Amino acid sequence: MPGQALIDHGRLLDAMGYEVDLLIEAARAVPHDVAVPMSPGWTVGEVVRHVGSVYRVALAWLVEGGRPREWQRDPAPGQTVESYLRQGFVDLDEVLRWHDPGERAATWWPADPTYGFWCRRMAHESTIHRVDVEDAARFDLGEIADDIALDGIDEALAVWFSHRLGMLGLSGTRQSSVGVRTGGHSWIARAGPTETVAWRCSDAEALRADAVVSESPVTVYLWLWGRQRLGAVHVDGDDDAAGQLWALMRLATR
């Protein structure tokens, strides 16, 4: 499969459309100034606007062939944030579906300079912020399929833990490794004062880590994105190592 995703990119694009529908439904159920506990300091309206802006910056990367300086960051006069979000999705979805996911494209992750990177990145951006708004609106959590969650775990560890933390100049305070096991997949996340790096691995390798984190794919996915409390997963071994991984992921994905 081209790119880094664990699942078909068409599946990710379909998931993004589903997430947009759920996000808009939840946003319309409450005033836009309602606080979003899972994204402290943000309101429902700000989260919806943010996702609409992210769709536009992704499209600008693709159209301009590099990091954009300008894009439409806010709704037009008289436009609702839901309409702004929807139009951003429609425009981006059209471009992503027009191109093969393995086709080269400008991205901010050197390991995956393809259109597929944006399919994956935007699917998970949409899912996580949909969860934020559903929680703020006191909705029951909408479905997240296990295959989407597993791909999101992989992206969280590869892109945010291994790459984004380094860009931010952040690392661990102590050397430790954490195995992550769920849904028939395994990863190692290793952190220390000079590195944060993760990779897919065998189950046997994951079990040799200082700590092993396990739970359902959806729980682990949301845990890595800071949308579950520290104790939401099962930890075998060094609790502090698992705590460091969780804390670093919160810094990487805030």
List the topology elements.
Blueprint: H1 9-27, H2 44-64, H3 81-98, H4 115-136, H5 146-167, E1 176-182, E2 185-192, E3 195-200, H6 203-207, E4 211-214, H7 217-224, E5 234-237, H8 239-253
Parallel strand pairs: 1-4
Antiparallel strand pairs: 1-2, 2-3, 4-5
Helix pairs in contact: 1-3, 1-4, 2-3, 2-4, 5-7, 5-8
Order of helices and strands: HHHHHEEEHEHEH
The amount of helix comes to 40-55%
Strand runs, count:
5
Instruction: Report the biggest beta sheet as strand number plus sense, adding barrel if it closes.
Output: 5 strands, mixed
From the alpha-carbon coordinates, what is the Rg to the nearest angstrom?
A: 18 Å
- Helical element count? 8
Which strand order do you get reading across the main beta sheet? 3-2-1-4-5
Structural class: alpha+beta
Broad shape: globular
What is the mean predicted local confidence, pLDDT?
96
Q: How far apart, in Å, are the first and last alpha carbons?
A: 30 Å
